[in-house]
């Protein structure tokens, strides 16, 4: 990041963790001098409504009201992902102030997005944690789980299964392992669906579809409160928000369930 100039103009992104500062639901807009940002450091990370979007260094200002990035999932994908990029960059800069090799202070490089040690020269780049997420189908049913963090007395949200990829593991191996660990179900026909940056704080969700192969549900009780097979034509529980890859996976699987049902009837 560099010193913001008074004449710098456009939209401004201020973050605190995965929280964003909005004014009446919108990003601050205008000249740095008129908004009081010209004493801060920042960098241009893209365009917002055909104007520059500036990411400012993270501030600890309790006078400003921040909203969670999740509440903006309704935005077009390119806008949501741009906000996610800003959140992830600030997380990277904040958590890599010191060298992981020798412990001396880092500084941001000029030629690329990286932090470099002022003593030994070691460079660190933004760390992205790959995480798989998978929707499992059994005929005309979908497997959905109520994770402990989503549990509420009235049931809470049911969603697909997910987990971080471990060292030396392929995405497909991670899919099979997570489904087995969390539900005791074996799966087959694993195929790639899509991906989504997930800045909470720095994950990349890699989505898959899979089919049931065998087994009965056995919960990993440390993480899962409940898991069930749900028929596509019956009322479903509370689902993840629209805009999440989990919701997209569920929708795609329900379409496959419906197609399987129609094929069976024909």
TrEMBL record:
Residues where a divalent metal cation 2 binds: 178
Any one annotated GO CC term: cytosol
Residues given in the record as a divalent metal cation 3 binding sites: 178, 182, 223
Cofactor note: Binds 1 zinc ion per subunit. Divalent metal cations. Mg(2+) or Mn(2+).
Cofactor(s) needed for function: Zn(2+); Mg(2+); Mn(2+)
InterPro entries: NAD-cap_RNA_hydrolase_NudC, NudC-like_C, Nudix_hydrolase, NUDIX_hydrolase-like_dom_sf, NUDIX_hydrolase_CS, NUDIX_hydrolase_dom, RNA_Hydrolase_NudC, Znr_NADH_PPase
One biological process term in Gene Ontology: NADP+ catabolic process
UniProt-annotated binding residues for substrate: 70, 112, 125, 196-203, 246
GO molecular function: magnesium ion binding; manganese ion binding; NAD+ diphosphatase activity; NADH pyrophosphatase activity; RNA NAD-cap (NMN-forming) hydrolase activity; zinc ion binding
UniProtKB keywords: Hydrolase, Magnesium, Manganese, Metal-binding, NAD, Zinc
Record field: catalytic activity: NAD(+) + H2O = beta-nicotinamide D-ribonucleotide + AMP + 2 H(+); NADH + H2O = reduced beta-nicotinamide D-ribonucleotide + AMP + 2 H(+); a 5'-end NAD(+)-phospho-ribonucleoside in mRNA + H2O = a 5'-end phospho-adenosine-phospho-ribonucleoside in mRNA + beta-nicotinamide D-ribonucleotide + 2 H(+)
Its biological purpose: mRNA decapping enzyme that specifically removes the nicotinamide adenine dinucleotide (NAD) cap from a subset of mRNAs by hydrolyzing the diphosphate linkage to produce nicotinamide mononucleotide (NMN) and 5' monophosphate mRNA. The NAD-cap is present at the 5'-end of some mRNAs and stabilizes RNA against 5'-processing. Has preference for mRNAs with a 5'-end purine. Catalyzes the hydrolysis of a broad range of dinucleotide pyrophosphates.
The protein's name: NAD-capped RNA hydrolase NudC
Species assigned in the record: Rodentibacter heidelbergensis
Name of the gene encoding the protein in the UniProt record: nudC
């Amino acid at each position: 990041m560099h010193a913001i100039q008074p004449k710098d103009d456009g939209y401004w992104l201020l973050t605190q963790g995965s929280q964003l500062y909005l004014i009446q639901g919108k990003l601050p807009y205008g000249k740095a001098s008129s908004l009081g940002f010209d004493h801060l450091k920042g960098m241009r990370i893209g365009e917002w409504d055909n104007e520059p979007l500036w990411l400012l260094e993270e501030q600890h200002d309790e006078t400003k009201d921040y909203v969670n990035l999740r509440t903006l999932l309704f935005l077009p994908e390119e806008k949501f992902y741009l906000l996610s990029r800003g959140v992830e960059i600030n997380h990277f800069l904040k958590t890599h102030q010191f060298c992981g090799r020798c412990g001396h202070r880092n500084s941001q490089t000029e030629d690329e997005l990286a932090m470099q040690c002022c003593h030994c020269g070691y460079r660190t780049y933004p760390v992205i944690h790959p995480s798989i997420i998978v929707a499992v189908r059994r005929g005309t049913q979908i497997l959905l789980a109520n994770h402990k963090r989503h549990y509420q007395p009235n049931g809470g949200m049911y969603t697909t299964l997910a987990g971080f990829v471990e060292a030396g593991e392929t995405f497909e191996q991670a899919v099979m392992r997570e489904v087995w660990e969390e539900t005791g179900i074996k799966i087959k026909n694993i195929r790639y669906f899509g991906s989504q940056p997930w800045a909470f704080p720095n994950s990349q969700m890699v989505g898959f579809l899979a089919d049931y192969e065998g087994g009965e549900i056995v919960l990993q009780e440390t993480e899962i409160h409940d898991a069930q097979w749900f028929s596509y034509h019956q009322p479903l529980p509370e689902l993840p928000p629209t805009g999440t890859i989990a919701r997209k996976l569920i929708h795609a699987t329900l379409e496959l369930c419906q197609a399987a049902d129609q094929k069976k009837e024909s």
